Amino acid sequence: MDIISRGGFFIWPILLESIIALWVIIDRMIFVFSVLPSRRDSISELVNSTGHEKSDGGGISEHEGVLQKAVGKAVEQKVLNISLLRLQADKLIDEAERFLSVLNIVAQTAPLLGLLGTVTGMIQAFIRIQDLGGQVNPSDLAGGIWEALITTAAGLIVAIPALIAYLAFSRTVDKYAAETDAAVSEIGHNLSRAGMEVV
After folding, report:
1. What global pTM score does this model have?
2. With contact defined as beta carbons under 8 Å apart, do 121 and 159 qualify?
3. Which pLDDT score, from 0 to 100, does residue 81 have?
4. Which of 6, 124, 130, 134 could link 146 by a cystine bridge, Cβ 3.0 to 4.6 Å?
């Protein structure tokens, strides 16, 4: 706590950002390693089920995913609205992207807060020099220098993991989005080939 207290005012928003970033990283890790694999498997099964040369939708409506429900409803009505299916797919992608913008904000603002703390720390040091008429020793400047160094280090310590996590999660989401978009197109093609009206 002594080091934190020496970091001045701007160490506190940096610490707050670190807590937020940690929470987002944990949340997204749970999603990526627990939820996303089952989502991919479910979509793959749906594509395979629509690839059968039949139009009765066997095995489709029993699933609980939003795409599966949309396709199951289309099978019942004998018509598939591909735009509505894409809209459902977009909702899945939006869920996968949730909170990633927060990580991006933390990665960009934490170093800036650290830099701002550096500037205020150096200002304090120069004010101290002026107050003492230039007759200073290192201990007289320690407070401002502490603030400058601590906030700079803290900003980078928070920003670097946040940036790495943001890039990693974004890459995973981009791949998932491409897979989902391709699956929607393939589902429309399969159902059209099976005799269903696709609009």
Report:
1. 0.80
2. no
3. 81
4. 6
Whether residue 173 lies inside any domain: the answer is: yes
pLDDT score for 100: 95
What gap in Å lies between CA 165 and CA 163, rounded to an integer?
A: 5
Residue 121's CB is within 10 A of a number of other CB atoms, namely: 25
What the block records as the tokens of 96 is: 């996968």
* Chain segment 127-157, per-residue pLDDT in tens: 777 777 766 666 655 666 777 888 999 999 9
Cβ atoms of residues 111 and 153 within 8 Å: no
What is the rounded distance in angstroms from the CA atom of residue 173 to the CA atom of residue 39?
A: 12
How far is it, in rounded angstroms, from Cα 193 to Cα 54? 9
Q: Which residues pair with 80 in a beta bridge?
A: 198
159 contact partners, CB below 8 Å, separation of at least 6: 106, 107, 108, 110, 111, 114
Spell out, as residue ranges, where the chain has pLDDT lower than 70.
1-3, 7, 52-64, 134-144
Domain count, the chain: 1
For residue 162, the enclosing domain spans 2-112+156-198
Q: Which is it for the CA torsion 151, 20, 28, 67, positive or negative?
A: negative
